[in-house]
Amino acid sequence: MNALQKSGLEALVSQAVEWDCPLSNYTSFGIGGPAEALVKVADQEELQQLIKFVQEEKIPWRVLGRGSNILVRDEGFAGIAIILSGEFKKTRVETRGDGVALKVGAGHSLSKLSAMCMDQGFSGLEFACGIPGSVGGAVMMNAGAWGGEIADVLIELELVGSSGKVSYKKEELQFGYRSFSAPGDQDLVISSATFALNKGEPEEIRQLCRKYLDKRRDIQPAGGKNAGSMFKNPQGDSAGRLIDACGLKGEKVGGAEISVKHANFIVNRGDASAADVLQLMELIVDTVYRQNGIRLEPEVKVW
Ligand code: EPU
């Protein structure tokens, strides 16, 4: 960005722009070089103006969310990484028949949302207990676990583009396994999602959440630096099973290791670089392809 663009960007947003910001501090992998600028956007108006600005100035940009499904390359991202904060973290509850419609800002943490639902006795998002990431990111990926996914409970979505806000009913959107698309080809950012939830017994909801959290802890690496499942499951099979069957658990490159607990996770043992992770991903794809004829597709987004 040139000096004029830099001052233009600073004038657009209410929070200070972080220049040359290491994204390792903003990703669950703890890996990644700097973004030229990291921008926290406080409300819809700022987001709209920012999208207009990046379009006019032809500056690369991406929404970072909570950085949980992202591998940022060591050289970083030559553009603007956006975090939705402020208004994008709010929730609003309305009665809907026997249940509720819960409108949530895209910057809200998904696992905190599911914990809030547990406390309030709203049922439907139990599957999301322990899924890291933001609500917006979860919609983009149609995140799921234990047979549930975002598309099952979503009823409406709001997105913001350079001309303002658009809303879509779930029926107007396309969801697949770990995929989502909205009509039109504009640059749009998800600003909020509305979920239809049932009123349930808080204790029953709590038990189900606990069961899922325990299961997750049993079969997935807990607590460490990782980005969740690295590859999508191929039709009718499991990436984890395939990688495991190739004997790749525990394989290391530099500070990155294929988890010994779940083969579809790569863990950062402290000092992994993005290059280490990419090399392990290549090893996985090549080995699984050679042994099974299946080409695994990354679930993690590489920046
Ligand atoms: N398996 C192995 N070895 C391993 C890992 C798994 O043999 O190292 C076998 C398991 O025994 C099981 C099968 O593979 O028979 C499937 O494994 P698992 O039950 O762990 O489910 P998964 O398909 O690997 C998916 C999601 C997870 C989600 C779980 C629970 C994908 C790519 N992953 O994992 O989502 O938490 O189901 O529902 O769809 C994520 O998306 O980041 C994520 C963690």
Give a verbal description of the structure.
By secondary structure, the chain is α+β, with helices and mostly antiparallel strands. Helix content is 29%, strand content 29%. It is built from eight helices and 20 strands. It has helices spanning 3-12, 44-57, 110-120, 135-140, 150-153, 202-219, 239-245, 274-292, and strands at 18-22, 34-41, 61-63, 70-71, 77-84, 91-96, 99-105, 122-123, 144-145, 148-149, 154-161, 164-169, 174-176, 179-181, 189-199, 225-226, 252-253, 256-258, 266-268, 301-302. Strands 6, 7, 8, 11, 12 and 15 form a six-stranded antiparallel beta sheet that branches. Strands 1-2-5-3 form a four-stranded mixed beta sheet. It has a four-stranded antiparallel beta sheet with strand order 16-19-18-17. A hairpin with a 2-residue loop joins strand 6 and strand 7. Helix 1 (3-12) runs antiparallel to helix 2 (44-57) and helix 3 (110-120) runs antiparallel to helix 6 (202-219). Uridine-diphosphate-2(N-acetylglucosaminyl) butyric acid binds at residues 145-146, 219, 228-229, 232-233, 238-241, 244, 262-264, 299.
